[in-house]
Write a structure and sequence with these properties.
The chain has 216 residues and is an alpha+beta fold. The protein is 31% helix and 23% strand. A seven-stranded antiparallel sheet has the order 1-7-6-5-4-3-2.
Amino acid sequence: MTGSTATMAATNAATNVTSKTAPTKTTTKIAFQEGYIKDEWSQLVEPAYRGIEGRAFLWTGRTPEVGQRTETQVTTAASTNGPAGSWCRLSGVVTDVGPLPTLDEWRSSSISCQQTPIEHQESLRDDVLSRFGTLHGQQVTSYAFLNFDFYDRQEELPFKRGRVYKVTHEADETKSFFWCVSSIEDVTDDLPCCEEYPEAFRKWSDGLGLVRRVSF
């Protein structure tokens, strides 16, 4: 076998291996009307789930941390699945906590900051952090499943049993629920081992036996 032929054969073999082992991953943005971390529900169910999973829940007033559980209520937009206004919960875990806005960034976006004399803005920032655990504009990402309570309503929902959703929350001081949803993506990975998912999500979902190959 000549050198060029051997090189071509090796290249073809590597290509074949890559094509067989490369992840097949789909990412689809999900349309919705509104969504937010459901504070009261999270506070209600945390004692029971913490006894099972040993995890704290994220809600308004608690500083976000990777590994916290999330219960996100989502109201759907009109789609082929059904009319607008249906709602459900996505149960997940925090996989990434974005940086806090700098004082200048917070000044430019926070109404409460803009209404405060500049000499008092830094102390106001510390007070907001103490009370709410975050600042307007901070982002938190969670990976989540459709909560099992809503499996019987899948026909009218864009969310399906066994699919994995990346949910981006953004702190919004103008809302009664601070952690509002800014985007939802279906990031279901068809590999059985799901090695591309964030570690915090893998540990949580593996512990509950939730990660499995999706075949529908």
